[in-house]
Amino acid sequence: MSAGKMLKQNQGVTSSPKSRLLGFATLLGLVTLFVFAFFLTDPDVRLHPTTGEEIGQFDAVRLLYLHVPMAIIGPYLAPLVGAVASIGYLIKRTPWWDVTAHAAIEVGAIFCGLVLVQGSIWGRPVWNTWWEWGDVRIMTTLILFLMLLGYLALRRVVADEHKQARRSAIVALVAAINLPIINRSVEWWESRTLHQKSTLSELKIEDLTFFTLMMGIVVFLMLFTWLVLHRFRLGWLEKESLKQEALTAIEERRAVAVTNEEETS
Q1: 231-250 burial string, b = 16+ CB within 10 Å, else e?
Q2: pTM of structure
Q3: CA 162 to mean position of chain CA atoms
Q4: CA 86 – CA 60 distance, rounded (Å)
Q5: What is the dihedral of CA 215, 206, 110, 74, to 10 degrees?
Q6: Is residue 37 pLDDT above 80, yes or no?
Q7: Going from the N-terminus, what domains does the chain have, and what CATH number goes with each?
Q8: pLDDT bracket for residue 137 (50, 70, 90)
Q9: How far is CA 223 from the centre of its chain?
Q10: What are the angstrom distances between the C-alpha of 248 and each of 47, 124, 223, 242, 253?
Q11: Separate counts of helices (H) and strands (E) for the chain
C-alpha cells in the first residue's frame, strides 16, 4: 500500500493501530529499562590488580544504558538510513525516498544532540570534565551533529521541490562520510581521546548488566522506528497538502481566466 493511500485511510492522521501498539510497547520498554538501569543493576566497581583499590565508574555507569543505545542511533544508524534513502532519491527521484531521508535525519539530529549532552553529564564524574575539545570522538560527533542541523536548515530554504531534495541528498551523503571516522577515531587517534575503545570489551559486561544494555539497544531502536514512522507520515501529509494547495491555486486561476474570457466576449 502506498503512503498516500495509507494516510487517506487513516483520515490524515499519523497514527495507526500498529504504530499505536509499537508506541505502547516502546513506552513500556522505556519504563522497564529505567527500572533495570537505575535500580536493579549494580554499579561498576572493580579492584585495582596491584593496589586492591576500588576503581570503576561506580553509579555513573548507569548512564551508559541510555548513552550507548542513543550513540548507536544518533551518530550511526539515523545518518546511515538518511544516506541510503538519499541515494534512493537520487536514483529513483520519488518523494518516498526524500521524505524517508528527511524523517531519519531529523530524528537522528535529536538523538545526536542528546548523545553529546548525556556524554557530557557522564564525563563529569568519570573524566572530571564536562567537555574536552581535544577529544576526537567528541569533536567528530559534534561535526556530524552540525552537519545534520545544516541538512535540516537546508530543508527550510524555499526552492523547487526536486532541487531542494537533490541538494539535501548531497548534504546527507557528505555527512555520512563522517560515520566511519567517528567509529574508528578512538583506534586511529588513541592519544587524543578519553573514550574507551568498546564498552562491551573494556568493562567485560555480563549477566544482568549485559542484559540491561541489550534491552536498552532494543528499546531505543523501537523508539527510533516509532519516531521516524510518525515523522515520515507527517512529512508525507505536508507534501500532499502543498500539492493540493498548488492544484487549488491552478483551478482558481483557470476559473478567473474563464470568467474574464466570458466577460470580454
Answers
A1: bbbbbbbebbeeeeeeeeee
A2: 0.86
A3: 24
A4: 38
A5: -110
A6: yes
A7: 16-264 (1.20.120)
A8: very high
A9: 10
A10: 72, 57, 37, 10, 9
A11: 10, 2
Give pLDDT, residue 249: 54
- φ/ψ (deg, to 5) at 56: 130, -170
CA pair distance 210, 228, nearest whole angstrom: 27
Q: What is the pLDDT of residues 41-85, one digit of tens each?
A: 988 887 777 787 877 788 988 999 999 999 999 999 999 999 999
Q: Report the distance separating Cα 200 and Cα 198, nearest Å.
A: 5
**Helix ranges restricted to H, 94-160:** 95-127, 136-155
Distance CA 2, CA 103 (A): 17
Cα(225)–Cα(231) distance, rounded to whole angstroms?
Answer: 10
User: In this structure, what DSSP letter does residue 76 have?
Assistant: I
- CA end-to-end span of the chain, whole Å? 49
Largest CA distance in the chain: 103
From CA 98, how far away is CA 165, in angstroms rounded? 6
Residues 71 and 209: their CA atoms lie apart, in Å, by 18
What whole-number distance in Å separates Cα of residue 175 and Cα of residue 101?
12
Q: Is the predicted pLDDT of residue 176 greater than 80, yes or no?
A: yes
